[in-house]
Every structure is written in C-alpha cells, then in structure tokens.
Design goal:
Strand content: 25-35%
Shape: globular
Order of helices and strands: EHEHEHEEEEEEEHEHEH
Number of strands: 12
Radius of gyration: 21 Å
Helix content: 10-25%
Strand order of the largest sheet: 1-12-11-2-3-5-4-10
Distance between the termini: 5 Å
Length: 261
C-alpha cells in the first residue's frame, strides 16, 4: 500500500484490506443525506466509521464534518453519527462547530442555519494536540481583584494577560471561491469544505510525517492540505470524476517521498 495516493473504489472494502492501526488522523465529510447529488453515490455511516476505526492508531483522531437535512424540522443525522461512532469504538472527544461566515440559505420560519458539526472522534486519548492560538484583545499587566474573604473586602492583585490564547471550538470560515479555495476546478464537486478548515485540523491533531486519510475525499481538500503541511496522505473516493479533480488540485504540490505501509 503506497501513501500519497488517490484511489478510486469503495472505501469500506479498501480499508478493510489495509493493515490495522496505521492512520494518525482522518479528516473527512460524508454525504449529507439528500442535500447534494454525489453522482448517485451514497454510504453507510456505521460501515464507514467501523472501517476508519480499524485503521486508526491508538491515540489517533477522526474529524467527521457533517451537516443534516432541514425540511420541516431537523433530521438530527449528525447527532446519530456521533452515537454510531461510539458504537464503533471511538470516544467523542469533542463536538465542534464549523460556522459559515457567508451562507445564502434563508429559512422562512426559523433563523438562518450557518453551521455544521465537526465531531472529533478519538481511538482512546488523543496522542497529539497542537492547540491553535489567536490574539487576545488586551495583554500586559493589569490589576484584578481576588475573591472576597470573610471580611467581604476585594483585594487587588497584578495579573498578566497573555498576548494570545487557545482558540475555542467554534471555527468560522468564508465559503465560496476565494474563501473555500481558489481552485476553480474544485467546484465541479457539489460540496467542498474550506481548505483552512482541513489545514487547521491537520495542524491540531497530527505532526509532520504522520499519515492522513480521507476515505470520501471528493475534490481532495484534505489530501492537498496534508501535502502542503508535510504529512503523508491517502485519498479514496468511489467516483473516478472526483478523484480526477483531486489529482488536478494536488499535481503541483511538492510531496514527501511516498512510503509503503
């Protein structure tokens, strides 16, 4: 099995033939019910998550970006996927939110939906966490008050506010051309998630030379970002057309020398 490769085929069948415990991180997004037309292809979440669990190293992570159908009410499929992942052996390490800064979809009798869930599955305790940082609004030394004692007097004390802090678990991204990606060819796929979303997860949950998997790779966003950040990668998709889109997006990136596993 060669890393740094794009493979056409049924990911469940392919992964079940691979060695166990060799993937450090999966970043993927399954089909969202009937919200998009994926050339008529569909998938079984239980079979897919079981196959991913099998190849994930102990301490490895699977980032599962999932939306759901809203038609007279929410289908709650994204929540069902979380329980399916638990049944497959994963722990739900976190449930994060992918917020879309510029969503065009309006609802007549409810507030505009602008988010999808990012379920962070882990095979035991995550072995890697490189927290992303963001600037704080204020930094330097300030005077703060300590908790009141029995005498009810606030006693002031100096505290240092850091220049940056760890991001929270709501991540916001612009979508569309220039936001999601500048690769026009990517939009031949019906559902492309932002390159920065994939990159942020890759940087958070893996290290250089780790193995990154996307078993429903579509237009190849995860694979492209893994390559750009010096990780090994495998992309699988049942659609030959989508694999060709991914191939075009990755073709100009300098790759790590592929390994055999």
């Amino acid at each position: 099995m060669k890393l740094n490769s794009l493979i056409v085929g049924d990911a469940v069948n392919i992964l079940n033939k691979y060695p166990i415990d060799f993937v450090d991180l999966t970043v993927t997004s399954p089909p969202y019910e009937n919200l998009r037309n994926y050339n008529g292809y569909s998938f079984n979440p239980s079979s897919m998550l079981s196959a991913i669990y099998r190849v994930t190293k102990p301490g490895g992570v699977c980032v599962w970006v999932v939306g759901e159908k809203i038609n007279g009410g929410r289908s709650l499929s994204s929540f069902r996927h979380a329980f399916i992942g638990k049944d497959c052996g994963f722990i739900v390490h976190d449930v994060m939110i992918y917020q879309k800064k510029n969503t065009p979809f309006q609802r007549k009798n409810a507030y505009t939906n602008c988010y999808e869930l990012m379920i962070i599955f882990a095979k035991k305790k995550p072995k890697t966490f490189n927290p992303l940082k963001e600037p704080t609004k204020r930094h330097g030394w300030e005077t703060a008050v300590s908790n009141k004692g029995p005498d009810a007097i606030n006693r002031k004390r100096p505290v240092e506010l850091k220049k940056e802090k760890t991001k929270n678990n709501i991540w916001s991204y612009a979508v569309g051309l220039g936001g999601t990606t500048s690769d026009k060819v990517a939009f031949q796929h019906p559902a492309v998630f932002p390159e920065k979303l994939a990159a942020d997860h890759i940087l958070s949950w893996s290290n250089r030379n780790d193995v990154i998997l996307d078993p429903m790779c579509g237009s190849g966003t995860t694979c492209k970002m893994a390559a750009l950040h010096q990780r090994y990668w495998i992309g699988i998709d049942i659609s030959k057309e989508y694999i060709e889109i991914a191939r075009q997006r990755i073709s100009n990136i300098e790759l790590l020398n592929p390994l055999e596993v």
